[in-house]
Structure formats: C-alpha cells, structure tokens
Amino acid sequence: MTSPSSAADHPGASLGRPESGPGSIARPGRRVAGLLIDYAAATLIATAFFGYDQFALPAEAGFSLFAPLIVFAVLQIVFIPTIGGSPGHRLVGMRLLRADGAWTGLWRPVVRTLLLVVVIPAVVWDADHRGLHDKVAGTVLVRA
Questions:
Q1: Closest CA relative to residue 66, chosen from 76, 58, 78
Q2: Which of 100, 98, 77, 80 has the alpha carbon at shortest distance from 90?
Q3: pTM of the predicted protein model
Q4: C-alpha to C-alpha distance for 37 and 44, rounded to whole angstroms
Q5: DSSP H or E run through 59
Q6: CA–CA separation, 25 and 86 (whole Å)
Q7: What CA dihedral angle connects 76, 78, 79 and 82, to 10 degrees?
Q8: Quick one: where's region Disordered (predicted)?
C-alpha cells in the first residue's frame, strides 16, 4: 500500500526523473556542498592571482573585492558545458543537464550563472527542487 504522498510525488516526477539514484534530482545537501566547494576554489584562485586585503574598505579593495565572485562565474560558465557541471557539482556526484536530458549547450550556463550570482533565484524553488535560475535556463541538476 502506498502512503498519501505516492512515489509519483517525488521531486523531479513531473520531469520524468527517478525518485533516487542516478538521474534523480540532486538534493539540497549535495547542492550546498557543491556550491561551497566551488566558492572556496574561486576564493583561493582569486586570492592567489589578485591578492586579498582583509583590512581594506570596499572602496579601497577595488577589483579584489569582486574577484572571487567573478572567478566563480567563470568556473561555472567554462565547466558546465565541458564536463557537465562545475568542479563542485562533479566532486559531490552531480551533473547539470537540460530539462529534457540533453547537453546544456553554451548559452544556458551563462544565463544560469548570471542568475545564480544574484542569489535570489537560487533560493526560490519549485516542487521539483529546481531553482528559478534552473527554470529560466531550462536546466536540471541531477545525481550522476
């Protein structure tokens, strides 16, 4: 006997995704872990190349204040179409696909990343656990 929330009500059911295992919608824990890995890597890369002055006021910091965010965006835009996800995605066992399961192409990662760095679209989710940035770009983050 099935419970009131049947198996068809799982995140990704409306997209034809399985409830668990490869191809299922990536859960929040993996998403956050991937994001933290990507932003930590971007911060390390930006600090190595552009420096970091922890005592500088924002007006004095200039480019170095936004360098980690810019490096983060570049990592997303370069790696999503080439390896199927950012380094953080891939390390925690996720990949980014179009909603129909095909390759993301080149413009989707750009749109998705621009919305991701604004933050708000990433924290607004639907029943399929897709952020607004993924809905606009027509992408879905799944377990690899």
A1: 58
A2: 80
A3: 0.85
A4: 11
A5: helix 58-61
A6: 16
A7: 150
A8: 1-25
d(CA 78, CA 90): 13
Tell me how far apart the alpha carbons of residues 29 and 102 are, in angstroms, rounded to a whole number. Answer: 24
Tokens of 114: 């621009």
E runs forming strands in the chain? 94-98, 139-143
Phi, psi of 3 (to 5 degrees): -80, 170
126 three-state secondary structure: coil
Tokens for 41, please give them.
């890597």
**C-alpha dist (Å) from residue 8 to 2, 18, 20, 23, 94:** 11, 9, 12, 15, 22
pLDDT in tens, 51-90: 776 666 666 666 777 889 999 999 999 999 999 999 999 9
> What are the sequence ranges of the domains in the chain?
34-143
Q: Which two tokens stand for residue 111?
A: 């749109």
Instruction: State how far Cα 68 lies from the chain centre.
Output: 16
The encoded tokens of residue 144 equal 């690899």
